[in-house]
Design goal:
2 copies of one chain form a homodimer. By secondary structure, the first copy, chain A, is mainly alpha-helical. Chain A is built from 7 helices and 3 strands; from the N terminus they run H-H-E-H-H-E-E-H-H-H. In chain A, strand 2 and strand 3 form a beta hairpin. Chain A is globular, with a radius of gyration of 19 Å. The mean pLDDT of chain A is 95. The structure holds a DNA duplex.
DNA sequence: CGGAATTAGATTGCGTACAATTTATTTGTA
DNA sequence: TACAAATAAATTGTACGCAATCTAATTCCG
């Protein structure tokens, strides 16, 4: 019935954990693209804004720690958000190495419009609520331990 | 005890499914980088090779369907794999639009060396076997239904 | 049969990701 | 207090990932 197992089974796509993780993330981020486009954000810009909406002003470093992104990625993303008028970037007074990232009035206003994004995504991922909770818990566990 | 719920809770990072998915995928792919570097592959090249090792020659289109990648991504990746000497790219005789991707001798030989990759990853993701199976099943379900 | 529609890859342009390096600032310590 | 070590961003270079577009080959139909 079943195929004969051999040492190369570990190289089969169906036996991977990383591949469905990679593909699923990619597909879901792709779905975000359209609703995000309507409010003028990319996915990366969106998660930056979510952190600022929830926690307020913080440094680029702190932002990076929350988002698992380094300055190589964040610096250009933040410059674009600044150019779009959603955030301010200013050197911290206490430590001139740090860059404080804060919301502009338009950045704060955008939060209301952003409510349509999770709404647009609603129902796109065909998992039950319990399955979604289980999936999220396992991902968060893997993320925390893998750090 | 708990925070008062409001309509903006859906915009909190901790309530997202996509964010841990995105971050987890990114972190795990990052861990692959080192062992893959030892056998001369990137992660994207690796999943291409896995498909070819498992299923043999197929067109770029078929490869893309299995990996959720389009020609914009695959064409340059396949050209690099060709330059590295792991695959051949040749137009299909029956349909000159299609490109058959097949393994070279070096590409076949690489399979043995690639066994060290899952081995190097072993234990890096701190989930129990059952948790890993649950996670993979949920990801595959989400992936299939979202397609 | 023959032109329109479809299809497979390739190309272009933009936006990440990230390792590695650089620069400026701050901290730790002899 | 000098000065080495550490730290935060910025920069550089490489590799995706994908939407949009283009080209060539094939198929569909009237």
């Amino acid at each position: 019935m079943s195929e004969s197992p051999d040492k190369f089974d570990v190289l089969k796509l169906g036996n991977q954990l990383c591949f469905p993780l990679y593909a699923c993330a990619k597909e879901i981020v792709r779905i975000y693209r359209e609703p995000l486009g309507k409010i003028g954000l990319t996915y990366t810009q969106y998660i930056v804004m979510m952190v600022l909406w929830e926690f307020g002003t913080m440094t680029e470093k702190e932002l990076g720690a929350k988002l698992y992104l380094d300055s190589g990625t964040l610096t250009p993303v933040l410059k674009k958000l600044e150019k779009s008028g959603f955030v301010k970037r200013q050197r911290a007074e206490k430590d001139e190495r740090s860059l404080n990232i804060s919301l502009t009035d338009n950045g704060i206003k955008l939060k209301e419009k952003a409510l349509q994004v999770p709404q647009a995504l609603d129902g796109c991922i065909h998992l039950s609520y319990d399955e979604m909770l289980t999936l999220r818990a396992l991902l968060n566990k893997a993320l925390k331990e893998t750090k």
